[in-house]
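Tip: read the tokens left to right.
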């Protein structure tokens, strides 16, 4: 699936559409948030580019049909084993902000954070850019959805 991701990543554009919640507003969202179908059409028309091949569309459909939720405990165990094998080691913590955004916090190097982010990408999560924590030294984090 990673090669499929590389082929289509520039053609996939997330959008949030609220049909009946005109009172909902979004700030600092990583994707457009619109009210209703007409606003969605306007956002979609802004996107320029080629189409995804029918073969890739079918691969995406199969991946979605067979997708399973990420088991954070299993993922942590997997990375704990890696940590034991890796002399540098790193710690991973997941959580949710007060506004409901899911995050992953990595105590380690930026390369460690990039490895963790890649695992989330491979699980078909969308991740934000990896950022350095302002307070804690050697801590990196990213948001995911």
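Filled-in amino acids:
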């Amino acid at each position: 699936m990673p090669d499929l991701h590389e082929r289509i990543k520039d053609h996939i554009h997330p959008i949030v559409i609220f049909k009946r919640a005109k009172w909902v507003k979004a700030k600092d969202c990583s994707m457009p948030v619109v009210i209703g179908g007409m606003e969605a059409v306007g956002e979609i028309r802004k996107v320029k580019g080629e189409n995804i091949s029918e073969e890739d569309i079918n691969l995406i459909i199969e991946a979605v049909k067979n997708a399973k939720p990420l088991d954070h405990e299993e993922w942590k165990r997997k990375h704990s084993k890696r940590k034991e094998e890796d002399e540098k080691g790193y710690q991973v913590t997941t959580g949710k902000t007060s506004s409901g955004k899911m995050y992953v916090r990595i105590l380690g190097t930026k390369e460690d954070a990039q490895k963790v982010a890649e695992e989330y990408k491979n699980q078909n999560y969308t991740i934000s850019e990896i950022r350095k924590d302002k307070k804690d030294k050697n801590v990196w984090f990213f948001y995911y959805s």
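The chain is about 40% helix and 20% strand. The chain has a mean pLDDT of 82.
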